[in-house]
Design a protein that fits this description.
Layout: E1 3-8, H1 12-28, E2 31-38, H2 53-70, E3 81-87, H3 90-100, E4 105-110, H4 124-131, E5 136-140, E6 150-154, H5 162-175, E7 178-185, H6 194-208, E8 214-218, H7 222-232, E9 237-242, H8 256-263, E10 267-272
Parallel strand pairs: 1-2, 1-4, 2-3, 4-5, 6-7, 6-9, 7-8, 9-10
Antiparallel strand pairs: 5-10
Helix pairs in contact: 3-4, 7-8
InterPro entries: Rossmann-like_a/b/a_fold, Universal_stress_UspA, UspA
Family: Belongs to the universal stress protein A family.
Domain UspA: 1-140, 150-271
Amino acid sequence: MKSIIVPVDFSEQSEKALKVAATIAKKHDSELLVLHMLELSPAIMSESGYVSQEQVVHLIKIGEKRFNDFLDKPYLKGIKIIPIIKHYKVFNEVSEVAEKHEADLIVMGSHGTDGLQEIFIGSNTERVVRTSEVPVLVIKGDIKKFKPERFVFACDFKDENIPALVKAINLAKAFESKLHLVYINTPGDEFLSTEDIYNRVSKFLNLAKLGLEVEIYNDYTVEKGVLNYSESIAADLIGIPTHGRKGLSHFFMGSIGENIANHSNTAVVTFKI
């Protein structure tokens, strides 16, 4: 794992993400690209949206001072830190930084289980999750030592999910986690017989050329199924696929994928299809 991006806003939540990223970086000798998005207040902008160069320079200097203070942490000693200050559209900037530095992972903080509140103003965390080509690890709460032993990956085992599963397998190897694959079977239109599920899973694994076991878990909704199954095996990490700008994968119709991230007390990692 060469490089890891950590967007920060100097909040307690972003520091929790930074701690986890530091743990991963130390283990893999990775560099940390700590990214702060400069919020430009409407009060300092003209009607045209123009901000003078002097004002931007002043804000950057303030940001640099806060950056230096924020990064002066014992747990960051010995890690190569690359501080980056950007402004304007957070989700575009994060993707650009990830592409430029060939980042392997983005680690972001969440404000808890009441919703995936943004660590930036607006809805940028969700947009980063949806648009990022690299996996996004959303940290829930204060994790003293990030060492996910049990990693759940849930999907509908349709062909489009193969790239996401391959990324999940690689990440599980990097984290030295045991990967648990699960299909959530629900009543109603999405219900499949056991035989139908086995046929779909078998076709999927054959196409992916993978010899893995898949659990079938029955529940009333996909969200409840993923969360309840993860709790039943004491999972440390939950992986879900996303469709990027088109919304979460068909398996997680509507806002189910966001709800899993929102309501899970466990860290969640997303993989773009």
